[in-house]
Amino acid sequence: MSFVDITVRPPAPTELRRFAQRLGPRTLLDSESAAFKAAGLGYLSMDDTEVMERVVADPRLLRLPLVRAGDRFVVGPDEAGWKALLG
């Protein structure tokens, strides 16, 4: 496992697509973030493609942490996901 500061090196689009394929694109979007609110995204109706375009373009919109361990993926405060990953 490696730790990456996304403000220094944003996640690659291919890596984000792996998370999205596994967990769904909306799982990646942090609707509580300041960036989400500042962009006024709460008023938009976005499909999955648009969500992916947004998080790839602006990593501040990502729900963190993003963790991949082998074929297991966890995003944000997903208690069940963390238990499965650590268990």
SSE layout and pairing:
Blueprint: H1 13-23, H2 25-28, H3 34-38, H4 48-57, E1 66-69, E2 72-75, H5 79-86
Antiparallel strand pairs: 1-2
Mean pLDDT: 93
User: Helix/strand/pairing class, anyone?
Assistant: mainly alpha
CATH class: Alpha Beta
Q: Largest beta sheet, briefly?
A: 2 strands, antiparallel
The tally of domains stands at 1
Low-confidence stretches: none
Name the CATH superfamily classification.
Answer: Glutaredoxin
Q: How does the overall form come out from the CA principal axes?
A: globular
Helical amount among residues, as a percent range? 40-55%
Order of helices and strands: HHHHEEH
Total of DSSP H or I helical runs spanning 4+ residues:
5
Please indicate the percent range of residues in DSSP E strands (runs of 2 or more).
5-15%
- Read across the widest sheet, the strand sequence of neighbours is 1-2
CATH structural architecture: 3-Layer(aba) Sandwich
Give the N-terminus to C-terminus distance in angstroms: 16 Å
Number of strand segments: 2
- Radius of gyration of CA atoms, rounded to a whole number: 13 Å
Instruction: Provide the CATH topology.
Output: Glutaredoxin
Task: Please provide a written account of the structure.
There is one protein chain. This protein has 87 residues and is mainly alpha-helical. It has one domain: Glutaredoxin (3-Layer(aba) Sandwich). The protein contains five helices and two strands. A two-stranded antiparallel ribbon has the order 1-2. Strand 1 and strand 2 form a beta hairpin. The two termini are 16 Å apart.
